[in-house]
Structure formats: structure tokens, C-alpha cells
Recover the amino acids of this structure.
């Protein structure tokens, strides 16, 4: 089924939307979550949360690219879950409490949202100026959470060289952000 | 700013940037699943020269000696494996040092001869022909040899041997990522006297296998065809099927090259479109592949050109004549040959960075060329004439031996998976904080020229595509 048809199902509140979403994008989202989470149960729970979040957000959202939309949700949920797990490992009751209370905080204010959008725009612009392969490598590392070793295998380089490349890309992004100065939070 | 802010900022990058990375990953998985199942950009060529003389023939017999080829370190995971692979790559580069322009003169004379066509596709392997002629020089003497040496741009045999051997070493590669395999052989007739020292030189310096058998027999002919097929990845079976030995043949030299590599960045098959290609004799519908990237576009007086890199080294060059000009016009003008002989295309002054949108037809082109006319046109004439031809270094008792046939078959296939190339050269740039350069559409929708260069810079193949 095409993504546009799946979105129509969401808009009609047809639960078939969730089944089709899992069918079309489950593998991708599972792999993405697996880049951040090691435990299979965590990955599966993260996926369930993703489908629920998509159900809650569409409508009113009408994503132009469903896969990127779902990936963004999966990524955020996986990172939240990872942080919760880390806090639990450290065993501090306070950290767990604070982490849980974060869910009760009101959403980011408009100013914050605008600042984040502006930052995303600058990063996207910086990515546009990179050679295609560098751009792909950066997104796969810092958006998709892939390991340096996997990226090295993909690009046909050694992990050491890939780590150096990533360092250069980070430095390049830093210079770009410094040029933007105060206009970026 | 905290790392969290940056993390969130990255989260919000544009969808197309995310999908570009996702799609690249999909293609990688496909490649892993079917590592070599699809013949991607495979190119190969054979050169065959045969000598004829009348007289009685002997009995059967095949392999006299077969070479042991150098082992290539596989390209694999891990720092240690990589260091070993790198060391061998450095050896290949060292072998190629000083050879940057060794074959320029030869190529400049050869390409206009071989690529001038009649509206059909023309493909050849300059390196393959160069090595075959080097072996031919080993078997000849006197003026016959001098004429060959002169065309190969060498003053003496020792220089030629060193050069041919280093070209062989520089271009021998089979590391699991790229295959660039050269092979040579000499086929002798039973019952004749051959100078062993010359056969040994061919074995030592050219890795040439030697065989002896009954010329004209089905078994010996099949052995030759099998050898050709095995060393050309069976991509020239039709042409090899036409190769025969006859009772009059007293010696055949065969030289092959087989090359296969993947594009550094593959084309994305779902993006292919059906487009019109303006062939010399009318429009054709072709499957066009598309790819865009910021890269250098080179200009000549009447042509534009871009390169596409292979994984782990080497590249393919596409030269598109300006409207109103043909590949043949460019070859006649000569400037394009100077451009194609560049080892570092970045040195070409007229190069500008553009956001290049490349449209390239998938193609599978081949040609089967008679080299005799070409050799004559290049001034290699004595070896063709009984009485004048001097093959005494190999055939001390056959004063009437002369070159009777010389054929060159070549084929080049290009598709989405293409030929993979080194990440190092293109990925090292640190262009930052610059606006994307101006867009340039490079659409190969009319006859064009191409070359395929190995990792050490040798021009392995060249061709004109009139019908993709």
C-alpha cells in the first residue's frame, strides 16, 4: 500500500492504518530503534509507542514523507527510553523520579520551538553544502544512530578513518554554527 | 547550546536529507545480498594475433607452463587487514610511478584509428593492445621489432619489458571489491622449433602461459577458446567462439583483460526513466539513470566532461560533444585526447564545481575489430609481409612466418551498481558553509565518448557509444 493511502486510513480513523504502517515501515523503524536500544523488548515497546504516537498525531499532522515522520518519532522515543534505562542503572531514585516527571512538563513554548526550527534549518543548509557521501554519513551517524564501524564498512574505510572523518564533520558543523553566532540558540 | 539542543536540531533536518541516507542504506543491503550476482560495469577485451606459415604440422599437447599470479590481499574489515591491503595498493602505485605518460603517444595514435566508426559502437582496451603488442615485439627482430617499439614509444626491449611488467603489476587486482585481471598466453604448434629463451621471457616478464598442440584440431581450438572465456569472465563467448586455429597457424598470442568494479555512489534504479537518445541514425528510447552531486565539470573547446569514481580507485570519464559535434570530430581535433590522458583530471584548467545532474543511459556495448588495418596505419607493416617479417627471436627456422590476423574484441557494460571506487579522494573535502553551486544538467542523450581508468591511472578501456 502506498504511503498516501495509509495516511487516508489514519484520517478516517481506520485501525488498518497501524497494521499497514507496521507492514511497510516496521523493519526500518525496528532497525532504527535497535541503533539506540540494545534490548529487544525495549525495541518492541518503542515500536508500539511509535504506532500509537502516529495514530495520535495523524490527523492533524499530514506528513509529506511518512517514513521520515515515523523515523523521527521512533528516534525520539528510543532516546527517551535509553535515558530512562541509564537513569535506572545508576539507581538514583531522584533521577528516575525526575525523568518520569519530565512527562508531566508542559510542551516546549513557541519561542523554543522556533529556535529549534531555526537550528534545524541551519543544519540542513550546512548538510546541503557537503559532498553527498559526507551528508549521508553524517545523517546515518547522528540521525539514524548507526555505529562508526558499520559506517566504515559501508564507505569501504577503516573505523579509524571513519572516526576521523566524523570528527572533521563535527568540527565543520561547529564552525558553521559559530558563524551563525547569536542567531542560533 | 547544549548537546541536547543540537540533537534536537538534527532531529528536525529536512525529510529529503533523511530519505537520502535511508535510500543509500537500502542500496547497500541489496549489494550485500547480491555481491556479484549482477554483472555491473564489467569490461573486458581480448587481443589475438596469429601467425601463419605453410608446412606440415605435428601432434597434440597443451600446457607447457602456466604462471603463478601474485596474490591480492582481500579488502576486509579490521585495521590490520586494511593496513595489509593498503601496503599492496601502495606497491601498485609504486609500480605505476613514472609511467604516467608512457602510453600517451600510443593512445593518441591508436584511439582515433579504433574509435572512428560508422555510426556503430566502438570499444577498445588501449592497455590490452599495448601489452599484446609488447609481447609481439618480444617475438620479432630487426625492422619488424623496431616498428613495433616505435609505436609503443620505447627505444629498446629492456625499457619495454620493464614498462609492460610494471603496467601489468599496477593493474593486477582481485581484492573482492575490484577485479582487474590481465592474462597472457602463447600457443605454439606441435612439431616446430621455438626459441625457449623467448618463451621464458614471455613467462617471466608478462606472466604468459605457454601451450603447445595440434593447430587446427578441435581440442586445441577449444582449449584456446576456453582460455579466452575463462579469462574474460565469459562475457565475450560469442566472439571467442569465432576464434579458430588452422593447420597453417604456427603461433598465436592471446592477451586478455577483465575488469569489474562498483560505483562509489550507485545509481538508484527506481529513479530510472525512459528517455530519448539521439543516435546517429535516428532517435532511440533508452533507460536513463540519474545521479546528482556537487562535482567538477570539465570544459574543452567543443566538449564537456565529468568523471564518476569507482570504489577503491579508478574512474570512468564521460565526454559529451557539444551540440553539432560528434565523438569522431573530437578525436580528429585531438584536444580530447590530451584531456583523456590526464592522470589527475583536477589538473585540467577548465574545471568548475557545479551541482551536476547526470543522466546516463544504461549501456552494454561491444565491438570486434580487425587490428591489421590499424597496425598498418600506425606504421607496423613489416610483420605483415612474408619475407620482410622477422620472427627469428621465437621462430629461428621459419623465415616465411608473417602475421596473418589480429583481432580485438571488447565489451563494456554499465548499470546502476556500476563500478565501485575509492572513498578517499572524493570524501576528503571539507567544503563547509558554502552555498550549493549552480546546477548543471549533464545529459548523455546523444553519442558520447567514455574511458575507464584503473586505480593507478592506466586507461583500461575507451569507447564511443552511438547505440546504448
Amino acid at each position: 500500500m502506498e504511503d498516501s493511502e495509509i495516511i487516508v486510513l489514519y484520517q478516517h480513523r481506520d485501525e488498518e492504518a497501524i497494521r499497514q504502517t507496521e507492514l511497510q515501515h516496521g523493519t526500518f523503524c525496528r532497525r532504527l530503534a535497535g541503533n539506540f536500544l540494545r534490548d529487544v523488548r525495549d525495541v518492541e515497546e518503542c515500536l508500539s509507542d511509535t504506532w500509537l504516537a502516529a495514530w495520535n498525531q495523524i490527523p492533524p499532522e499530514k506528513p509529506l514523507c511518512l517514513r521520515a515522520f515515523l523515523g523521527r518519532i521512533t528516534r525520539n522515543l528510543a532516546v527517551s527510553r535509553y535515558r530512562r534505562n541509564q537513569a535506572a542503572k545508576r539507581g538514583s531514585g531522584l533521577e528516575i523520579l525526575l525523568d518520569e516527571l519530565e512527562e508531566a512538563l508542559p510542551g516546549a513554548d513557541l519561542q523554543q520551538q522556533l529556535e529549534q526550527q531555526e537550528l534545524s534549518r541551519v543544519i540542513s543548509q550546512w548538510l546541503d553544502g557537503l559532498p553527498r557521501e559526507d551528508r549521508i554519513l553524517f545523517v546515518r551517524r547522528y540521525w539514524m544512530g548507526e555505529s562508526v564501524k558499520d559506517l566504515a564498512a559501508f564507505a569501504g574505510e577503516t573505523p579509524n578513518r571513519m572516526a576521523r572523518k566524523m570528527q572533521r564533520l563535527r568540527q565543520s558543523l561547529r564552525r558553521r554554527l559559530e558563524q551563525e553566532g547569536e542567531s542560533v540558540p | 547550546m547544549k548537546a541536547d539542543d543540537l540533537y534536537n536540531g538534527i532531529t528536525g533536518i529536512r525529510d529529503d536529507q533523511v530519505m537520502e541516507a535511508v535510500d543509500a542504506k537500502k542500496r547497500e543491503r541489496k549489494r550485500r545480498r547480491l555481491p556479484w550476482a549482477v554483472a555491473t560495469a564489467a569490461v573486458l577485451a581480448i587481443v589475438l594475433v596469429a601467425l601463419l606459415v605453410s608446412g606440415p604440422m605435428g601432434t597434440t599437447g597443451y600446457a607447457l607452463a602456466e604462471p603463478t599470479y601474485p596474490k591480492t590481499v582481500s579488502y576486509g574489515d579490521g585495521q590490520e587487514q586494511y593496513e595489509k591491503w593498503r601496503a599492496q595498493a601502495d606497491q601498485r602505485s609504486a609500480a605505476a610511478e613514472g609511467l604516467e605518460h608512457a602510453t600517451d603517444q600510443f593512445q593518441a595514435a591508436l584511439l582515433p584509428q579504433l574509435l572512428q566508426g560508422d555510426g556503430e559502437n566502438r570499444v577498445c582496451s588501449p592497455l590490452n593492445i599495448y601489452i599484446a603488442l609488447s609481447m609481439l615485439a618480444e617475438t620479432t627482430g630487426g625492422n619488424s621489432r623496431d616498428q613495433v617499439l616505435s609505436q609503443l614509444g620505447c627505444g629498446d626491449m629492456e625499457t619495454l619489458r620493464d614498462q609492460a611488467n610494471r603496467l601489468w603489476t599496477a593493474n593486477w587486482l582481485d581484492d573482492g571489491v575490484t577485479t582487474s585481471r590481465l592474462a597472457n598466453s602463447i600457443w605454439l604448434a606441435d612439431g616446430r622449433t621455438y626459441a625457449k629463451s623467448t618463451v621464458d621471457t614471455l613467462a617471466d616478464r608478462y606472466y604468459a602461459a605457454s601451450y603447445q598442440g595440434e593447430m587446427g584440431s578441435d581440442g586445441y581450438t577449444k582449449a584456446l577458446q576456453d582460455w579466452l572465456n575463462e579469462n574474460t569472465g565469459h562475457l565475450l563467448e560469442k566472439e571467442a567462439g569465432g576464434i579458430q586455429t588452422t593447420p597453417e597457424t604456427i603461433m598465436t598470442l592471446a592477451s586478455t583483460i577483465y575488469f569489474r568494479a562498483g560505483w562509489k555512489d550507485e545509481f538508484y534504479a527506481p529513479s530510472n526513466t525512459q528517455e530519448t537518445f539521439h543516435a546517429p541514425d535516428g532517435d532511440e528510447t533508452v533507460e536513463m539513470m540519474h545521479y546528482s552531486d556537487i562535482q567538477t565539470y570539465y570544459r574543452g573547446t567543443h566538449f564537456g566532461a565529468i568523471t564518476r569514481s569507482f570504489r577503491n580507485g579508478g574512474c570512468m570519464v564521460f565526454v559529451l560533444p557539444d551540440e553539432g559535434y560528434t565523438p569522431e570530430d573530437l578525436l580528429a581535433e585531438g584536444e580530447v585526447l590530451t584531456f583523456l590522458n590526464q592522470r589527475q583530471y583536477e589538473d585540467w584548467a577548465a574545471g568548475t564545481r557545479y551541482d551536476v545532474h547526470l543522466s546516463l543511459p544504461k549501456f552494454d556495448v561491444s565491438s570486434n575489430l580487425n587490428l591489421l588495418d590499424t597496425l598498418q596505419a600506425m606504421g607496423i607493416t613489416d610483420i605483415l609481409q612474408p619475407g620482410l617479417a622477422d620472427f627469428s627471436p621465437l621462430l629461428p627456422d621459419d623465415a616465411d612466418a608473417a602475421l596473418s590476423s589480429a583481432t580485438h574484441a571488447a565489451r563494456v557494460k554499465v548499470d546502476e551498481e556500476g563500478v565501485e571506487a575509492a572513498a578517499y579522494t572524493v570524501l576528503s573535502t571539507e567544503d563547509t558553509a558554502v552555498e550549493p553551486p549552480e546546477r548543471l544538467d549533464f545529459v548523455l542523450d546523444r553519442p558520447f565518448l567514455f574511458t575507464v581508468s584503473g586505480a593507478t591511472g592506466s586507461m583500461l578501456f575507451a569507447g564511443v557509444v552511438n547505440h546504448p
Observations:
- The radius of gyration of chain A is 19 Å.
